[in-house]
Design goal:
Elements lengths: L2 H16 L4 E2 L6 H13 L4 E6 L5 E6 L2 E6 L5 E2 L4 E2 L5 E2 H15 L6 E3 L6 E7 L4 H8 L1 H6 L2 E7 L8 H11 L3 H9 L13 H11 L6 E3 L5 E3 L4 H10 L1
Parallel strand pairs: 1-2, 9-10
Antiparallel strand pairs: 2-3, 3-4, 4-5, 6-7, 8-10, 9-11, 11-12
């Protein structure tokens, strides 16, 4: 099988896993109410993949291609954001739903990641990155510090300007380069890199970030599936990882 045909199969499989057809996740749902919710959200170009009862009475948890939303059972009200349990020390209930999803969805992209592996690996993080982002550049400039502490860094692309931006094209060139790490190193140092095209998954990586709730870079996915937005120095990050 040729490399391009293999990559096309990867893209197809991942697209199917990300955007599976709309389904019911519980038998006791009101089908008319769920159909109404799906129709309203898809009118906003939000693709619904599943609807389940939520722990908050009167709300459904709606899984979409842009992450998780909460919708009232009558389909009128939509909540986007985190929901906290005041009776359990402000536990982030929304994050509990997302951590398992993130861990499972990342598995399909492991062969697409650009990996800076620690020689004595203790922890593995996945970073949604943008080559034009200042704090992404700072994180990358300190790669040796992360690796020295046993932290392997895996990159996925998240061009903040979307798939029509110049950064998107730049990141396609990185993922299509013969030496991806060299291209990434040069881009993070604000050096020009040769434009390249190939069958790639940069668009799917960006959409995965949206699904995970990424809205800025760098965005770090920890080993337990939790999301840590923003830059963290190596010393701070290893402390966080050791606690978890």
């Amino acid at each position: 099988m040729s490399c391009n045909r293999f990559k096309k199969r990867i893209v197809t499989v991942m697209a199917m896993s990300l955007f599976c057809s709309f389904s019911f996740a519980a038998q006791d749902l009101d089908k008319a109410a769920v159909d109404k919710i799906a129709a309203k959200m898809e009118a906003l170009q939000i693709q619904v993949t599943s609807v389940t009862p939520f722990v908050v009475d009167g709300l459904y948890e709606v899984l979409t291609d842009r992450g998780i939303y909460y919708v009232s059972k009558n389909g009128q009200f939509l909540v986007h954001g985190n929901i906290y349990d005041l009776d359990n020390e402000m536990e982030n209930v929304s994050e509990k739903s997302l951590v398992t999803l993130r861990k499972n969805r990342l598995k399909a992209f492991e062969k697409e990641m650009i990996v800076y592996k620690a020689a004595q690996e203790k922890h593995v993080i996945t970073v949604f990155t943008d080559t034009s982002c200042g704090y992404c550049q700072k994180l990358h400039s300190e790669m040796a510090d992360y690796n020295k502490l046993g932290i392997t860094v895996r990159y996925l692309a998240f061009p903040r300007g979307g798939i029509k931006s110049a950064t998107y094209n730049n990141m396609v060139s990185i993922w299509c380069a013969d030496d991806q790490k060299l291209a990434m190193d040069n881009a993070k140092k604000r050096r020009e890199i040769a434009p390249e095209t190939c069958v790639n998954t940069v668009k799917e990586q960006y959409e995965l970030g949206l699904f995970f709730g990424v809205n800025g870079t760098p965005a770090i996915i920890l080993e337990d599936g939790s999301l840590k937005p923003g830059y963290l120095p190596a010393e701070n990050l290893i402390q966080l990882l050791e606690k978890k």
